[in-house]
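Quick one, T. Sequence first:
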Amino acid sequence: LGPRPARSIWTLSVRCGDARRPAGPPFAAMSVTGTVKSYNPFKGFGFLTQSDGQEVFVHVSDCNGMAPTQSDSLTFEVELDPKSGKLKATNVQGCTGSAEAAKGGGKGKGKGW
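Structure tokens:
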């Protein structure tokens, strides 16, 4: 089986009553404002709260070379992540933290013991 078209995933989540997305046509990117609710600099991701109260995932790679810090006021675009089917922030502006600190301190050996 190949990947499903994005529209069928959208239809499935709306039929199942997924409260994370409004009912209607597939989600299009839009620019919004919000604040940093939580952010883990060691893992490089966190959550933003939009001005309407809805939470959105954010990854440091979408922050234009900076990292969000707690309570930063940000402007960003909200998109539907085709891989997870959830909302994510992209083109995030207004971060005040250093992206270097967000890289963590692991050695990257991957041995797991």
